[in-house]
Specification:
About 40% of the residues lie in helices and about 25% in strands. It is an alpha/beta fold and about 280 residues long. A 6-stranded mixed beta sheet has the order 6-7-8-3-9-10, sandwiched between helices. Strands 2-1-4-5 form a 4-stranded antiparallel beta sheet, with helices on one face.
């Protein structure tokens, strides 16, 4: 089994300029550690900075303050030690499933024979070995997302970042892909940071769940998920229900507060625009 990298997020803050002046603080002094090979889930309402935090870990943007380290090396931009899977599949429609997986490898100068071998390996890993010659329009939404996961894994990153990858899928497909993701994690030993709005998904997938709040984005709870994953219907067990309720009690008031922050921000923006117009 491969082993993923440790992640250290230390007092990270991030803000953005507003059109009407001032700044919006997306994250305020966020700190946490991720162990090598751990499956960590971030759950929280819209506007709490989950995606911003994931972008910072990936190096797609840089923090205003604090630091992020991958195996003790500061993150200063994107790197091959991290792979990311977005909510949208972002597959090239003119390339086959195999071609989509090979694309990044080709850009990195991996020889043709090795590209083909890696693509075949990861198609098999996501249980799509017989679909390598299919184009995206010939695949279901769940298949497309599995191809996106295979593409992210193809260059063997130590960290896999997943930004609500199943949010657009129907409930049955979402549950199947949750099981597939757990299987892939156990098989590869990658460090996974997964963000979601779904409390059920967070409890089902995570070894640990960080609950986030908005205004500014911050972590309000760090919860270890200690449940019997061998249960026939895990989601129906008392332990699962208790953890879901515990997180809901933290999540519900924060979601209400986040909605208020967004609403007040819209009102302030509207008032500012009306003032300028008059």
């Amino acid at each position: 089994m491969w082993m993923g990298a440790a992640i250290s997020v230390r007092n990270v803050s991030k803000s953005y300029s507003l059109n009407q002046g001032g700044r919006f603080v997306a994250l305020g002094n966020v700190s946490f550690e991720v162990r090598p090979g751990e499956f960590l889930v971030l759950v929280g309402p819209s506007g709490c900075g989950k995606t911003t935090l994931l972008d910072l870990i990936d190096g797609l943007s840089l923090a205003d303050g604090g630091s992020i380290l991958i195996d003790c090396v500061p993150v200063k931009g994107p790197g091959l030690d991290r792979g990311i899977v977005f909510q949208q599949y972002a597959l090239f429609p003119w390339k086959t499933a195999k071609g989509n997986i090979e694309f990044g490898l080709e850009a990195r100068g991996v020889p043709k024979a090795e590209r083909a071998a890696r693509a075949a390996h990861f198609l098999d890993l996501v249980d799509l070995a017989d679909f390598g010659d299919r184009y995206p329009h010939q695949l279901s939404g769940g298949m497309k997302q599995r191809i996106a996961i295979a593409r992210a894994l193809s260059y063997d990153p130590e960290v896999l970042l997943m930004d609500e990858p199943f949010a657009a899928l129907d409930a049955q497909t979402r549950e199947r892909l949750q099981d597939e993701t757990l299987r892939i994690w156990r098989q590869t030993g990658k460090t996974i940071v997964f963000i979601t709005h779904s409390i059920d998904e967070a409890v089902y997938l995570g070894q640990r769940v960080l609950v986030m709040a908005a205004g500014p984005g911050r972590i309000v709870a760090d919860i270890a998920i200690d449940i019997d994953r061998g249960a026939d219907d895990l989601r129906a067990t008392p332990e699962f229900v208790a953890l879901r309720h515990r997180i809901w009690q933290l999540f519900h008031p924060e979601a209400t507060a986040a909605a208020r922050v967004v609403r007040d921000g819209v009102r302030q923006s509207t008032a500012s625009e009306e003032s300028r117009a008059s």
